[in-house]
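Question (not urgent): is this output format expected?
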Amino acid sequence: MSKLTTWIAAGALALLAPVAATATVLNFDNLGSDGSVPANYGGLDWSAGGWGFYTFPQPPYTPHSGDGRAALNWDADKAASHIGFVQDMVFDGAWFAGLQGATVQYELYLDGALVGTSAVLDPTGAPTFLASGYSGLVDAIEFVGPALDSVVMDDFTFHAQANAVPEPASAALLLAGLAGLAIRRRQLG
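Got this back:
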């Protein structure tokens, strides 16, 4: 196989390989002293105003990593828990700790429509990951539970959707074209 054919084949394989998505993890450790989560923290829209953060030890509100964690303000409701994504993303989940019985669940939205809900997590003092349970794109999430101010959140994780792999027919057509180029090249000499 000639060098040109090898380079063309390698390029085709690179085009066909899916691109891995890199996750963004917001751990609230870089926000400084305790206060409100900034309205644009991590490139997200936290402007509903229900979220604060703190770093001091307070069991059972244990952080998953570092010292920072987010918490909803006292008596916050579902509307105050709203977090918007500036562009559509895949929401992976977050870590929670808090009082048992203060269950938490996600509602996932795209263009104002509810597209998914997570399992329900009953937190403890040991941080536990609550997966979104939904692999599609979302543009907002909200939290549901009887006492949302009795849990803390850490390592909020999301990512852009990976580039799609071409359909098999498109991939076959691309490879057939490349094979034709290789044969033609050999014929020309």
